[in-house]
Amino acid sequence: MAEISKEQVKHVAHLARLAITDDEVEKMTKQLGDIIKYAELLNDLDTDNVKPTTHVLDLKNVMRKDEPRKWIEKEDALNNAPDKKNGQFRVPSILE
């Protein structure tokens, strides 16, 4: 991969709405270049027998089963409503 340029650093800083000085551009250009070189080392790894994973940890779904259960009746829910009309909750309007 080609090395990162100062113009690319300035462009990314502009997109991120970051105000950076010329000294910071120099420093970030070198640092980002080092990061890219380090990441390119991964291209040398033999990954032929490595199974693809979606996560490095063996996570399991910890959510409860979705089972039907009895819920309160509509009238019971509306009994606690401070304002109701035609079997529905009434709330203050937020749109004009």
Automatic annotation (TrEMBL):
One of the protein's GO biological processes: translation
EC number: 6.3.5.-
Keywords: ATP-binding, Ligase, Nucleotide-binding, Protein biosynthesis, Transferase
Record-level Gene Ontology MF annotations: asparaginyl-tRNA synthase (glutamine-hydrolyzing) activity; ATP binding; glutaminyl-tRNA synthase (glutamine-hydrolyzing) activity; transferase activity
Gene3D superfamilies in alphabetical order: Glu-tRNAGln amidotransferase C subunit, N-terminal domain (1.10.20.60)
Catalytic activity field: L-aspartyl-tRNA(Asn) + L-glutamine + ATP + H2O = L-asparaginyl-tRNA(Asn) + L-glutamate + ADP + phosphate + 2 H(+); L-glutamyl-tRNA(Gln) + L-glutamine + ATP + H2O = L-glutaminyl-tRNA(Gln) + L-glutamate + ADP + phosphate + H(+)
Listed HAMAP family: GatC
Biological role stated in the UniProt entry: Allows the formation of correctly charged Asn-tRNA(Asn) or Gln-tRNA(Gln) through the transamidation of misacylated Asp-tRNA(Asn) or Glu-tRNA(Gln) in organisms which lack either or both of asparaginyl-tRNA or glutaminyl-tRNA synthetases. The reaction takes place in the presence of glutamine and ATP through an activated phospho-Asp-tRNA(Asn) or phospho-Glu-tRNA(Gln).
Subunit structure as annotated in this protein's UniProt entry: Heterotrimer of A, B and C subunits.
Protein's name in the database: Aspartyl/glutamyl-tRNA(Asn/Gln) amidotransferase subunit C
Organism whose genome encodes this protein: Aquibacillus halophilus
Origin organism lineage: Bacteria, Bacillati, Bacillota, Bacilli, Bacillales
Gene of this entry: gatC
